[in-house]
Amino acid sequence: MDASASATPAPAGPVSISQDCDADPGPKAKAGPVRGRKRSFAALSFGAVGVVFGDIGTSPLYALREALAHSRPVGSPNLAVLGVVSLILWTLTLIVTVKYVLVLMRANNGGEGGPVALMNLAQTAIGRASTLLFLVGILGVSLFYADGIITPAFSVLSAVEGLKGAPHVGAVLTPLVLPLAGAILIGLFMAQARGTHRVGALFGPIMTLWFLTLGVLGVINLKADPGVLAAFNPYWAVRFLLQNGRVGFVILGSVFLAVTGAEALYADMGQFGRYPIRAAWGILVFPCLALNYLGQGALVLTHPGARLSPFFDMTPHEAYWPVLTLATVAAVIASQAVITGAFSMTRQAVQVGLLPRIEIRRTSLTQSGQIYVPAVSGLMAVGVLILLVIFQSSHRLAAAYGAAVTGTMFLSTAVLFVVARRLWRWRWIQIIALLVPIAFIDTVFMASNLTKIADGAWLPLLFGGTLVIVMWTWSKGVRILTEKTRSDSQPIADLVEILSRKPPHRAPGTAMFLTANPDLAPAALMHNLEHNKVLHERNVLLTVETADTPRVAEDDRVRIEAIGPDFKRVTLRYGFMESPNVPKTLAHCKKLGLKFDIMSTSFFLGRRSLVPDARSGMPPWQDHLFIFLMRNAASPIDFFKLPPGRVVEMGAQIAV
């Protein structure tokens, strides 16, 4: 395709295309009677429990266990337990409730959240493209993927390890833990191609039951030592950190495991809305998590040996197998939510030019958000299985978990400074009072997790760093290619004038030339004139743009401009949460006066063969990487849903 017809470049990096024209406008568009809206709000809150809180909902399986494993009693024998529980409760309060639920969820881009949406919102706030913000967006997306590989392995393995403590048969089942976890994860990734819309309706009820189970188990075990309620006093958290010194600082990395998954509140905001997510967190999720951590703490205060596996030790024997089964299912749902998030993030990254075109399949005819990305699914499956083989236990894997999440959280806070100052017009006193403390907390947790680099935290950072190189290379290469094309091309206005004076042979029908720059004559048009000596009766320069909003209103989807008597410029706009369907959108052009028959229209694409160029501005290794990415990008025919029988590709060799 001409230059990067899948992307329209911006000063800080390319901005690519987007999504389904028939995308569901979301709950805001579904107005109705008050009673209907109440039911809708309840349904959205219920659904959020099943999708948004899966990851953070499985943290009681391992968070307290890992924090206590690194602690040592100093002074009072109960200080370690009260200190760790207090740290967990206040981390949930400050990171999740204050930062995400109350503050960051206000920074919605057309109702959407996540690294890409936040980056675009900040770009809008400053009124121009920013290379720094573009780099922050790349880092955020890369760390999101890194977390997406670790979460399924860690969550499922933590749940299945409950077999080790199963009454009477734990020793027999212990050797089966790793193979069973691997089999569950393989089955999960194999099921992605079929979509989750059929079982997705069960996620809400199952996770609601899971959170209620967490709460009930916590209440039951609170009777062992109600004194654990003192952990609500932050005095115990501060005292524990001060008396443990460097060890306390390292333990913060394990305490942070209690809030992994908090990014999902923000990333999935567009699917459910911020108010249903806030309601689900405040009414069900947070209380049940707090009760469970308090119950685990009370159990360990009474039976210190339970610190090795407090969650499963707090489960009554008669309920052990049902709880173990429910925990495993909850871990699978948490993994599914992360995988689905990775698919959605990939679609956004492709749309805004961070990644080359990738095959994206829809798995539901009715739900536009149900997509499947084969390449991402395959890479994640391989990565997850490698993690299982390398680490083999959730305790060892815990060292790798958290580094990517803290990085993502820190970056979101950094971009939030820009949004708060430039878009919300906060005064400096407001920023210093609220955002500076949040940034300090993020920095402390990030520094604590970085102390675990030698123990495994290097893995997500290595993976994230690799993705940063890939994304930066792609965006830089597309920008160089676009600039080279612009310098070698002829303005379309000049060409139209020349053709009016010396008209070539005319062929019947309509020709559409896909191009990233509608002001220049597409390479395919020039090749058609040069080699075939022919010009169609009607010629359309078709450009697909990505807006900095999640979705584009249908009235703003198409823009048509006449260039000359036989040429028109058509621009199709999609949001970064939409997938382009060119034929479907072009059908609406007839209402705007562009008459053509799609089955008698030829789509011309410029197929470019790239060769390295020492003067490209990139080092040789980056040249070769960009060429590799370009060659392996998905076909524009599939990406834009073009009718294959109506596409003509015309090639040329370009040095980059």
What can you see in these coordinates?
There is one protein chain. Strand 7 and strand 8 form a beta hairpin. The longest helix is centred in the middle third of the chain and has 32 residues, at 320-351. This protein has helices at 34-51, 54-57, 63-70, 79-103, 115-126, 131-160, 170-173, 177-190, 200-222, 234-244, 246-255, 263-267, 269-272, 274-302, 310-313, 320-351, 374-391, 394-397, 403-423, 428-450, 458-488, 492-501, 523-532, 582-586, 620-631, 636-639; strands at residues 7-10, 13-16, 361-362, 371-372, 505-514, 534-546, 558-562, 567-574, 601-611, 647-655. By secondary structure, the protein is an alpha/beta fold. The chain has 2 domains: 32-456, Amino acid/polyamine transporter I, CATH 1.20.1740; 482-655, no CATH class.
**How would you describe the shape?**
elongated
CATH top level of the largest domain?
A: Mainly Alpha
How much helix is in the residues? 55-70%
Percent in strands? 5-15%
What kind of oligomer do you see?
single chain
Would you kindly provide a brief summary of this structure?
With about 650 residues, the protein is an alpha/beta fold. Helix content is about 55%, strand content about 10%.
How are the SSEs placed, and which strands pair?
Blueprint: E1 7-10, E2 13-16, H1 34-51, H2 54-57, H3 63-70, H4 79-103, H5 115-126, H6 131-160, H7 170-173, H8 177-190, H9 200-222, H10 234-244, H11 246-255, H12 263-267, H13 269-272, H14 274-302, H15 310-313, H16 320-351, E3 361-362, E4 371-372, H17 374-391, H18 394-397, H19 403-423, H20 428-450, H21 458-488, H22 492-501, E5 505-514, H23 523-532, E6 534-546, E7 558-562, E8 567-574, H24 582-586, E9 601-611, H25 620-631, H26 636-639, E10 647-655
Parallel strand pairs: 5-6, 5-9, 6-8, 9-10
Antiparallel strand pairs: 1-2, 3-4, 7-8
Helix pairs in contact: 1-9, 1-14, 3-4, 3-11, 4-10, 4-14, 5-6, 5-19, 6-8, 6-16, 6-17, 6-19, 6-21, 8-17, 9-14, 9-16, 10-11, 11-20, 19-20, 21-25
